[in-house]
Amino acid sequence: MMSTVIGHRGARSVAPENTLGSIRAAERCGADFVEVDVRLSKDGILVVIHDDTADRTTDGTGRVEEMTLEEIRLLDAGSGERIPTLAQAADLAEELDLGIVVEMKEEGLEDLVVREVEGRRAIVTSFFHESVREIKELGDIRTGIIISSLPISPIDLALEAKAEAIFPRLTNPNLFKKAHRVGIEVYPWTVNDPDQVRWLRRLGADGIVTDDPCAIRKAADEPVTNVEAGECQYYPCHHFEEQDCTHCFCPLYPCRDPELGKFIKTKRGKRLWSCVDCALVHRPMVARYLSEHPEATAEELKRVDRGGDDAS
């Protein structure tokens, strides 16, 4: 099954970011959605720009919140492109049959964003999870929380915000498994390497946020296939006899059970839990039990492996 490709800031590797030209480039590359960032101008208009100043992305200077829409429209965002309003970006995305992901870069934009995107194929996201929750309370709109680290319970954060999706910068296999268990989709960002796209799809990514939809579209469309035993290019790989798998990451990691693994130090001195020699979750009886009891602990699985009461 194909993965959803989301052009980051349009298609910022192909055209000036957060512009109408970048949205058109994303469509030509085969993106399914375009992601844009929104802020508020001095006169209360939602404009599409990432930074809080115009310095990096235009030929002008100054804080966006201190500039009127008329002043913002005079700025060159690259190759003659202008900074669009959210209304212009959403209209163009709809005209091109693209969905739109709107990232709120500030708090307090909720009402205005809902007015622009309600009824469209849209997802509203933010690092401000309270704002995401408020969007859900204001309208029937898909939402997502953005996270740049891996907090203790990202799933709980999404559920508390009433979000349907998580947009993480960092991921691990457990994030995908736990999210999908409660119906939450996962869209990692920002991924520009086709091999990384293939790996994330094996782990369960529902889509990919990328600067260059042209470069990853093919990889996103490839079917996810099992890895032949002994041929997995990813570390750690156990290479157990007759093992074919989509990925071999233990859902208990890091279990920190001294019978199953140990802490090691990397060459850079980082303390890391290693269980590369553990075969517990690959044993048929244990694997079957784990699939039926996804919240099982290492102790439970060890009892199952020994043929204890938990195996019944």
UniProtKB/TrEMBL annotation:
Residues 3-220 form the GP-PDE domain. Gene3D superfamilies: Phosphatidylinositol (PI) phosphodiesterase (3.20.20.190). InterPro entries: GP_PDE_dom (IPR030395), PLC-like_Pdiesterase_TIM-brl (IPR017946), Zf-like (IPR007212). This is Glycerophosphodiester phosphodiesterase family protein. It comes from Candidatus Methanocrinis alkalitolerans.
